[in-house]
Write a structure and sequence with these properties.
Elements: E1 2-3, E2 16-22, H1 33-38, E3 55-62, E4 71-72, H2 75-79, H3 81-100, H4 106-123, H5 127-135, H6 145-170, H7 176-183, H8 187-194
Antiparallel strand pairs: 1-2, 2-3, 3-4
């Protein structure tokens, strides 16, 4: 049983598998697909039947090397594997979302890049506009630093509104440490500046 995140397009894989933990805590190591089959990587194969090992627990293991906590399994769990996979899936989905937060969706990344390019052009600092300025080819209205400042004001308003909404949404599932990491600041810094937005307080 594999877990996939829809935004897993980065260099590090965040595809996950449920792994059987057998014989007092020994688990199959991270391995190739062939080894996964040989080692009973599919936890449902570790049912103790026909000479196979008997799983005492399962854990979710991500392609990046992260591992979830071991969860004891009973015969009922083998009979209803979908239900047993729900909690490990949620645990892994949380991990994957934290790790993939830095990888923006392509559309958003492109939109931000386009805004930055237009502002640099309007400020006269883009490569093409710098060439024009040096050669004296600019005309009235080509460089508009005051318009850039007005745009910066709007961007700050948008950023503040989005940050407020995102923090309020994030606090139901994510820690201050994880929020700070997404913002590129420490847990303490994020908490001190944004705790008034926490719906839990």
């Amino acid at each position: 049983m594999s877990f996939f995140h829809p935004h897993n397009e980065g260099k590090i894989s965040h595809e996950a598998e449920l792994v059987a933990v057998v014989d007092g805590g020994v688990e199959p190591p991270k391995a190739t697909h062939e080894d996964k089959v040989r080692l009973g990587w599919g936890w449902l194969l570790a049912d103790g039947r026909d000479g196979r090992p008997r799983a005492t627990a399962i854990k979710v293991v991500c392609g990046c090397g992260w591992k979830g906590r071991a969860r004891p399994v009973t015969q009922e769990d083998f009979d209803d594997p979908d239900k047993m996979s729900e909690a490990p899936y949620r645990e892994w989905a949380h991990h994957a979302e934290v790790e993939l937060a830095k990888d923006l969706p392509d559309e958003l990344s492109q939109a931000l890049g386009a805004v930055e390019w237009q502002l640099n052009d309007l400020a006269g600092t883009s490569y093409e506009m710098s060439k024009k300025r040096k050669s004296g080819e600019t005309q009235i209205g080509d460089v508009r630093p005051l318009a850039v400042l007005n745009a910066v004001k709007e961007l700050r308003r948008i950023a503040d509104d989005c940050e407020k909404d995102a923090v309020q949404q994030a606090r139901s599932d994510f820690s201050w440490e994880e929020i700070g990491r997404a913002l590129g600041v420490t847990k303490q810094s994020a908490h001190e500046r944004l705790r008034h937005l926490d719906p839990q307080t």
